[in-house]
Amino acid sequence: MNVTQQEIKEQAEIALSLRALFAGKKGMVRTFGCQQNEADGERILGELADCGLTPTEELSEADVVILNTCAIREHAEQRVLGIIGSMKKEKEKRPDMLIGMCGCMAQERHRQDLLMQSYPFVDFLFGTDRHHRVPEILREALRSRKQRQFVTDLPHNEFGVISEGTPVYRDSDYKAKVSVMYGCNNFCSYCIVPYVRGHERSRASAQVLEEVGSLVQAGYKDIMLLGQNVNSYRGDVDFPTLLEKCASFEGDYWVRFMTSHPKDASPALVRVMAEQPKVAKHFHLPFQSGNDRILSAMNRKYNREQYLEKALAIKEQVKDVSLTSDVIVGFPTETEKEFLDTVELVKQVGFDMLYTFIYSPRKGTVAEKMEGRIPHEEQVRRFSYLSDVQNEIAQKNNDAFLGKVLTVLSEGVNEKGIPTGRSSGNKIVTFDAPVLQGTFCKVKIDTARQYALSGIVKD
Predict the structure, then answer these.
(1) Three-state DSSP state, 4
(2) Separation CA 389–CA 238 (nearest Å)
(3) Phi, psi angles (nearest 5°) of residue 9
(4) What does the alpha-carbon distance between residue 314 and residue 309 come to, in Å, rounded to a whole number?
């Protein structure tokens, strides 16, 4: 499971040997999907830089392009395939350009076959446990000039690695992502993640703390601990202990985490969030459905009552907490009454934000073969109805911040030139005067919208 330091050293040596070949050339990583994918993308870009490629965000400048993909929904996959198809003309203009694909789509067998048959101009693809081998993959792509695949043949419950010591090219100098565990053992019936990310594996706490400590020392202000199921972390300590230790360094910063599974959201984790001032007051706790029969069909391993008990305890015990969640509407066989159970749960909890998704069948999952598909028009109607309900709740929650003074981490100015930032609860806050990006400021809230707050910077 743990990549040896000898192998990491060998990859570094390959990277060194490629620098002359890539001198003056540029590399691009385009990432789709979740924060874990974004963290992977930063490591891949770090390895490209180690090989001598200067990072760029412009396709027309890139000599090496890697698409870091997501497979969580069909729409995400179709979008990636469309982008890959559009790159054919660029490849024809510059045949020496290298195009690669990695991430969750690359781990799916049917997508591998499609790439081989329909996209021969893609030079290489590699799976989710091959990120540390990017220098070797580039070397082989240069040597063969034929499409190559670097994907494990191991079953989903046996593959997956942890690699320490690979370079990272972070896309921010004040916000950082730190993966603490990888993979998933939950096998929710609708989800492809365990099949493309492998079984759960956790980094040693010493490695995590060393990375977090170095980020704090370097001046990072917002550090996110990541995992497909982050609070199932099982290193030499449990996740609440790890989180508490990550919040113990000297310095002015927040530490937050994403994403939690309700079955692993323990009272100890809530206590740490409530007691530790450096733990950001944002808890993302997906519930997916408010009906017990649908939860069972989803294989979520908790029921409505258990979820409500945990969600309401978080709101009661953590002052000014922002509670967000994920929900799927239109799961196979979901009745109108069962959908309304979800609506009632949303009203009862009062989430600050809800990420609502229309059920999308994923090839290879249990739910893909379920009968009782809900017509798309009905799925859209339920989506719209639930969105309207949540919008009202969000407005009411944000109205409660009027007149309060919040600590906000400045993100500079947005695309409209308006100073903006994020609160501890991950709420968007705009304000009246520019504040240096990556620094904290106090903002007195005078305007509340459904998903954003505005105010005046206080001296």
Answers:
(1) coil
(2) 37
(3) -65, -40
(4) 9
Cβ atoms within 10 Å, residue 137? 24
**Which residue is listed with tokens 């698409």?**
67
Compute the distance between CA of residue 106 and CA of residue 149 in angstroms, rounded to an integer. 9
Give backbone dihedrals phi and psi of 393, rounded to 5 degrees, phi first: -65, -45
Name the one residue in this structure whose structure tokens are 């981490």: 409
CA distance 443 to 268: 31
Q: Per residue in 199-223, pLDDT tens?
A: 999 999 999 999 999 999 999 999 9
Four-point Cα dihedral 233, 238, 240, 241, nearest 10: -130
β partners of residue 323: 283
Contact at 8 Å (CB) between 297 and 333?
yes
Question: CA 409 to CA 371: how far, in whole Å?
Answer: 48
What pLDDT is stored for residue 171 in this prediction?
92
pLDDT exceeds 90 at position 267: yes
Residue 143 CB neighbours (<10 A): 9
Residue type, 245: K
Question: Do the bridges between strand 54-55 and strand 353-358 make them parallel or antiparallel, or are there none, so unpaired?
Answer: unpaired
* Position 401 confidence tier, pLDDT thresholds 50, 70, 90: very high
How many other CB atoms are found less than 10 A from the CB of residue 252? 11
pLDDT at site 306:
98
Burial class (CB in 10 A: 0-12, 13-18, 19+), 267: exposed
Residues 6+ apart with CB under 8 A from 315: 321, 323, 349, 350
Tokens found for residue 352:
């600050």
pTM to 2 decimal places: 0.95
Report CA Rg, the chain: 23
Buried b (16+ CB within 10 A) or exposed e, 20-45: eebeebbbbbebbbbebbbbbbbbbb
Q: Which two tokens stand for residue 342?
A: 């979800």
Closest C-alpha to 260, from 207, 205, 319, 321: 321
For the chain, list the domains and their CATH numbers: 5-150 (3.40.50.12160), 172-261 (3.30.750.210), 281-400 (3.30.750.200), 405-458 (2.40.50.140)
Using 50, 70 and 90 to split pLDDT, how confident is the model at 176?
very high
Instruction: Give the β-pairing of 322-329 and 282-284.
Output: parallel
Confidence of residue 1 (pLDDT cuts 50, 70, 90): confident
Angle at 132 between CA 72 and CA 109, to 5 degrees: 40
